[in-house]
Design a protein that fits this description.
This protein is of the alpha+beta class. It has a single domain, classed as Alpha-Beta Complex (Inorganic Pyrophosphatase), CATH 3.90.80.10. Helices cover 21% and strands 29% of the residues. It has a 5-stranded mixed beta barrel with strand order 1-4-6-9-7. Strands 2-3 form a two-stranded antiparallel sheet.
Length: 213
């Protein structure tokens, strides 16, 4: 089974083998991001949790594509602590914490890592499960670099994210229960990330103990 393998013997696993922050970083608001999808993608790509490779999850039925780079923060997991921060739900989606990153410069490939500054998030509830989407800016971006909090970002940027996540699972004849009404700022986003890191170490901390053996 995967959990008994030394996942970083060759290529580091993007979820378990990387860190939420670069080594030596003193800025708690700057995180590392593994990018799964680009704004040009109309196919849903997702990390295969066992192999660590990027896989095709599904072709999108709608014509919408993510309005920002879309991926996750390594060594995070959405479980009990994340669910506690989302009123009205009891569970989270059981995946790494999602993050959307805005960049003025066009980044034309996924399966990469980058550093991004957290500015806020969307409290998404998908079929009764907490599925937060953190919002961030590419660290050092020449146009968006002065954005510090969600209110500094043009409202249309957040609206497009809300529209994308409210529609990206739509299928003819099938009801979709997704709520993306609550948008929060940097302070709450950092608390959600901390909760997801806590959930990760509670559920997967033993992986790193095994890797040291």
């Amino acid at each position: 089974m995967y959990r008994n393998e030394k996942y970083n013997r060759w290529r580091r696993h993007p979820w378990h083998g990387l860190y939420a922050r670069q080594e030596g970083s003193t800025d708690n608001g700057v995180v590392q991001v593994y990018v799964e999808m680009l704004p040009t993608d109309v196919v849903k790509y997702e990390l295969d949790k066992n192999s660590g490779f990027l896989m095709v999850d599904r072709p999108q039925r709608t014509t919408s594509s993510p309005p920002a780079l879309y991926g996750f923060i390594p060594r995070t997991y959405c479980a009990e602590e994340v669910a506690k921060r989302c009123p009205g739900v009891e569970v989270a989606d059981g995946d790494p914490l999602d993050i959307c990153v805005y960049s003025e410069r066009h980044i034309n490939r996924s399966d990469i890592i980058l550093s991004a500054r957290v500015i806020g998030g969307i409290q998404m509830i998908d079929d009764g499960e907490a599925d937060d989407k953190i919002i961030a800016i590419l660290d050092g971006d020449n146009v968006w670099g002065d954005v510090q909090d969600i209110d500094d970002l043009p409202a249309i940027k957040v609206e497009r994210l809300q529209h994308y996540f409210s529609t990206y699972k739509l299928q003819p004849g099938k009801d979709v229960d997704i709520k993306v009404d609550h948008v929060y700022g940097r302070e709450e986003a950092l608390k959600v990330i901390a909760a997801a890191e806590q959930d990760y170490w509670h559920h997967y901390g033993d992986l790193h103990d095994e890797a040291k053996k």
